[in-house]
Amino acid sequence: MRCAIGHKGATLSAITSLAMIETLRFLMCKPEYFGVSYVINPWMKGNINQTTLERATHQWNALVSAVEGLAQVELIEPQPGLPDMVFTANAGFILDDTAVISRFRFAERQGEEAHFERWFRSRRFSVLRMPDDIPFEGAGDALLDRGTLRIWAAWGHRSARTSHDILAKMLGVEVVSLRLVDERFYHLDTCFCPLDGGYLLYYPPAFDAQSNVIIERLVPHELRVAIEEDDALQFACNAVNIGDTIIMNKISEELLKRLQAAGFAVIEREMTEFLKAGGAAKCLTLRVNEPRQLSWMASRTA
Question: 20 to 30 Å CA-CA from 144: which of 56, 102, 174, 223?
């Protein structure tokens, strides 16, 4: 088992042992009604009615198989007229037994909210909501650090900056605000991926200068894996991290070697159909057991 280098010196073996107490679970949604039927991000432009359901289903099934090799997959029933419901990462943000439900900025996705809320309540989550006038797009724009108890949250395209202060008060956790400035990376999880052991996979040009200063201050240089534009445009940061394994879209040989050198095993799964809608592996999953104790322990296993 590799060790995370840097100021914390945390061993992943300790963290992973804690995680194994409860099997990791991910929420996913079959792409039965998936397609690009409107434009709410730059990736959708020119791709209306250009997806193939057969190919999307094949790619989704391959992702499910990869995740199920390491964790448990739970499903929510897809709904007609909601083609983006397949992107379950946007259902909400989870910590312990609390789910903060998304408030989608665009009307095209607001119909998903009630379905996701019912699912969370059926699993006995305590459901919290942002005020009606505060857009917040769940684990698309809010991500747990994997080295300490901290939430990284983005604003600039979808979620409102004010949602960060509300989220911090709701959950009693530090929230670090980052500003997105490139419309191609409209959610935080399209350009920023916290990895086990405190590592960070990210694309610096997606953020403003002040946000990059914050990232560099909080994440040691040896734990930052900054990627180039070619990999960023393949949504390399939109990855599913389970322990020492990263499941992601196809990436460059150079990035693959860098991740392997850091001790990660990489599983590549083609996500081309979902890229047309502005999503990839991470967008298609939501980790539903996020106990804060694991993050607390991760920062103290020196």
Answer: 56
Is residue 3 predicted with pLDDT exceeding 90? no
Q: What's the number of domains the chain is made of?
A: 1
Residue 238 resides in a domain: yes
Alpha-carbon distance of 265 to 159, in angstroms, equals 32
Compute the Cα dihedral for 80, 83, 86, 88 and give only its sign.
Answer: negative
**pLDDT tens per residue, range 83-119:** 999 999 999 999 999 999 999 999 999 999 999 999 9
Q: Measured between alpha carbons, how far is 10 from 55 in angstroms, rounded to an integer? A: 41
Active site residues: 187, 283
Please give the residue range of the domain that contains residue 209: 12-298
Band of the pLDDT at 265, cuts 50, 70, 90? Answer: very high
Provide the CATH number for the domain around residue 212. 3.75.10.10
* Inside any domain, residue 119: yes
